User: What shape does this take?
Amino acid sequence: MKRLKGKVDATEDLQITVTEMICRLSTPGDPKHCALSVAIQLALGRSVKSVRTLRTICEIELRDEIRRHRVYGSLARAITAYDSTGIFPPGTYTLHRMNPAWTLPAVRMPLVVIGNRLVSVVVHTVFVKLGELPLSK
Assistant: This one.
């Protein structure tokens, strides 16, 4: 598990059930009180301080850490539709564990400007034997 300022990447998937009652208790467009956030708070109980759900990441604040889950697929589409229409389809959804491309960086990655965007760059160490090094003439 990688930890950065109290945040931890989830290592297991989490199944959450959203019911019609939860949809009535929730607020569209509010990341802390949307239908999925309310469902997570009801499912996990008192161990949850707060939940913040965005379209790609869900952060669950527990007593001693903030656990990050990845949101995609039918759940991401449901969140997008809920924000625009106020209707969240009831059902069971999966909050996925973080895949390696989305994990928290162990060290701060350098940033470079490409076009008009600021992009983080992943630097890898490559070991090459001296005899295999291509030499230019």
Remarks:
- DSSP finds three helices and nine strands in the chain.
- The chain has a mean pLDDT of 80.
- The helical segments are 20-25, 35-44, 74-85.
- The longest strand covers residues 48-53.
